[in-house]
Amino acid sequence: MSFLLVFAIVLAIGLAAFVVGRQRARAQDDGTVKPHSRAHYHGWWAFLTGVVPAVLFLAAWDIGASAYLNSHIHSSLPADVADGTVAHEDLSAGLVKSLASGLRKLDSQTLATLPSTFTELQPMLAAKGVALAPDTQDYMIPIATETNSVSDRLGMISAVVSIGLALIGVGFGLKGISPRARARNNVEKVMLWSLLGASTLAILTTIGIVLSMLFQTIAFFEKVPLTNFFFGAVWDPRFAAAGAGASEGQFGLIPLLAGTLYIAFVALLVAVPIGLMSAVYMSEYAAPKVRAVVKPALELLAGIPTIVYGIFALVTLGPFLRDISAALTGGTPFIQAQSILTAGLVMGVMLIPVVSSLSDDIITAVPRAMRDGSLGLGATRSETIKRVILPAALPGIVGAILLTASRAIGETMIVVLAAGVAANLTLNPFEAMTTITVKIVNQLTGDLEFNTPQTLVAFALGITLFALTLVMNIVALYIVRKYREQYE
Amino acid sequence: MNIMTEKSLDDAVNAEMNARTNEIIKMRGDKVTVHYGEKQALFGVDLDVRQNQVTALIGPSGCGKSTFLRCLNRMNDTIDAARVGGKITLDSEDIYDPKIDVVELRARVGMVFQKPNPFPKSIYENVAYGPRIHGLAKNKAELDVIVEKSLQKAALWNEAKDRLNEPGTGLSGGQQQRLCIARAIAVSPEVILMDEPCSALDPIATAKVEELIDELRENYTIVIVTHSMQQAARVSQRTAMFHLGYLVEEGPTDKMFTNPDDKRTQDYITGRFG
């Protein structure tokens, strides 16, 4: 039986238990004892005792079963394949798996008289719309059939056990129904655990992402020394020819890091003053009607996909700046179409709503008493803003700027299109420079062999970027939190 | 009631001393009305504030006493929906006249708020704030003098002189409120408005602030909103009773507390409502 079918059956059992439980709780309420929980809580509790263990088991079994099948296939492979390279073994196991899932499409009669060679089998499967790799070997056919039968057996066991668990759980839940039973508190506890589970999942995912990058990063540093990466001033990974020497090419982080920080700096130079001023205007001056229009309009900027900004930079702003510089010098342009300036300006525009929205919240959070105190002393509005509100909000604004900076550092699409791919090390904002994110994209796209430093370096770059933004976010959150405490 | 009789005795002496200045009307409200949006909060209030006296505004919550106070230095201007009608004068000048600069007005009519609201700056900077924005000091030495004098007048100098560079928010509640008073004094106002200045303070801090208010009367005209009848009796020379946006009655404090004309005042003072 398939996973979904079992799941549906378990759910149906649970729903039935809900109806029965609610009915039973209502029937028990004869007015003599004040019921602890309302009837539908008893229903929900019966539902949960049935469904939760069954579903948890089903999920666990499914994960375990696929792992078991995988190792089963590996162990069934002939000795010469298993002794070969890891890649070869994985490839063969993958072929067996696709063959096995292809065989599922055939009816039982055909399966009983299965041909023993792939050349005979292939047209039969092709007729069912299953395309298989031509290097599928004859010896894989029996392994695939066997895999299918093992998987069927495992599926059967899981179906029986989980439906059984659901029935037992439902029975337990229904049996416990009595007027004084604390179904309401029990349901509350399950709610708490499921909420906890949801937040844990988010954290675990983050850890999982970091770990997955970490392993590849370690693989990279096995091939390239740490100093080459962190202190190398030249980025020239070369081309990853199959079987080429490992340490070919140079993987210097510094030009990329410099480019990333430079572009982020230019972007902040644009976004911070404009964003901050619009935040001050919106929180201090704008009439409610104006604010109701301007604030959503500004936030609309945040909704534009960054690739669109990138296109704008590539097609409009970059050529425009180049042509202007050409007109100024009367011939040779000193601003390249793809440059730090272009990328920084466009990214800055993208970040304006981020700065203004965060700062707006922070400025609005400065207590009214501060404004009153200053205005009551005869200060004008702008004096109040300059001397009282902004200083009071400063830690929060610094936090907002750091959060914005980490957005700028992690931004990819704009820089891919607007900053160029040349890993220069320059201070001239009119030249092209490139960023960590651009190089990650570059190293991971195209037909590259995976196990080469040329590809693996993307993970080292990724984890560096992660560490960089993580530190900035932590500092930002720390500052923001500290600022909050001031008024409580 | 012991306090009340002592107070009456004091006042009898004071009344004679103040007889000369009694007649100077510092501020005058003439048919003052206030609307907050659709809702009317004040209905034609006529009230005089006498120079070098403490005028207490009392009344149950929502009676309009704070609203009236905030009209006196146009703090209601900062609330978008508020509209003020009628006429309010300061030294016979209409303060709602378009020719009046509201910023200048607020320098002449200072305000102390219900909750102490020192700026998140040092004690020194808090007091120096007003003089700085109004350019009252030519140099650092003059500013130092203003800060010291203001803190002395606010009876905070002895406690604060060794920690002028520490944040004002680090002081105790009562000290913070005296800091706010010092901050208001530093711009040399003529009138000081106080909106329930002691409601967030403990009794000891309250006593200090009340003592201070009595001393300040010598140089300033004070209008104080208070919820505490005893406080009104202790610190003020004249009391005005508000109810539901109307001025019920106004008169010398001892008369208001012993022999009010209006039954509502009687009821409020004896604690029958409010």
TrEMBL record, chain A:
Keyword NAD among record annotations: no
Localization: Cell inner membrane; Cell membrane
Organism whose genome encodes this protein: Aminobacter ciceronei
Purpose: Part of the binding-protein-dependent transport system for phosphate; probably responsible for the translocation of the substrate across the membrane.
Bilayer topology annotation: Multi-pass membrane protein
UniProt cross-references to PANTHER family, sorted A to Z: PHOSPHATE TRANSPORT SYSTEM PERMEASE (PTHR42727:SF1), PHOSPHATE TRANSPORT SYSTEM PERMEASE PROTEIN (PTHR42727)
UniProt xrefs under Gene3D superfamilies: MetI-like (1.10.3720.10)
Transmembrane parts of this sequence: 43-61, 154-172, 192-214, 252-276, 297-320, 340-367, 388-409, 456-480
InterPro entries with a match to the protein in the record: MetI-like, MetI-like_sf, Phosphate_PstC, PstC_N
Official protein name in the record: Phosphate transport system permease protein
UniProtKB/TrEMBL annotation, chain B:
Pfam family, one: ABC_tran
A Gene Ontology molecular function term of the record: ATP binding
SMART domains: AAA
InterPro entries: AAA+_ATPase, ABC_transporter-like_ATP-bd, ABC_transporter-like_CS, P-loop_NTPase, PstB-like
SUPFAM superfamilies linked: P-loop containing nucleoside triphosphate hydrolases (SSF52540)
PROSITE patterns assigned: ABC_TRANSPORTER_1 (PS00211), ABC_TRANSPORTER_2 (PS50893)
This protein's UniProt keywords: ATP-binding, Nucleotide-binding, Phosphate transport, Transport
Domain named ABC transporter: residues: 27-269
Superkingdom, taxonomy of origin: Bacteria
Family designation: Belongs to the ABC transporter superfamily.
Protein name: Phosphate transport system ATP-binding protein
Source organism (scientific name): Aminobacter ciceronei
